[in-house]
Amino acid sequence: MATTTPNYGWDVPTSTDYVKDGATAIETLGDDIDATLWTALGGAYPGLRLVKTQTIGTAVSAVTVTSAFSATYQAYKVIVSGGSSSTIQILSLSFPSNTTGYYWSAKNLSWTGTTADYTGNNVGSFGRTGYFTPDHIHANFELVNPFLNKNTFYTATYIAAIAGGDGAYTTGALLNTNSLTSFTLTAGGGTLTGGTIAVYGYGIS
Length: 205
Known about the structure:
This protein is mainly β. About 10% of the residues lie in helices and about 45% in strands.
């Protein structure tokens, strides 16, 4: 290597270097760039990183997403979009083998200014997770600590995009210390078809 770049000091060849050393030159430059990015990004590539996507089936009343949580991330965001349904209803969220211990509350505000409160006290799922109509399926929620042996914290927002609809904000906690790897979205009625579930991890460490 005969020279370096002016800003980061990456090793680069010059026009007089031997062609036979090209592979080594590329490897060295790649290592330099990788080391610089690792330092610049805090050593952990922070921010949202896609874990997996899953397509909802055809005319199903519930869908389970497996291998969603692991030791890699402590917090997750899940977005459900697209698809359609046979009716208008609410989505709920639960975790396989965890049938109790869900505590949650929700505040709904309609387009006309009417408010409504909903709660769940040691029930079998988180309510008010998402909304679906024959036009779309919609959910946007976050989880903290699902894989860890700690309580799992939950927040969700959704929009009931229909005439006379509303917006909702839900918070809650699963009060056990089970390690979770999967989750299930269940329709409050009717069936779901199509749409995509995207799971992202927050890269903080």
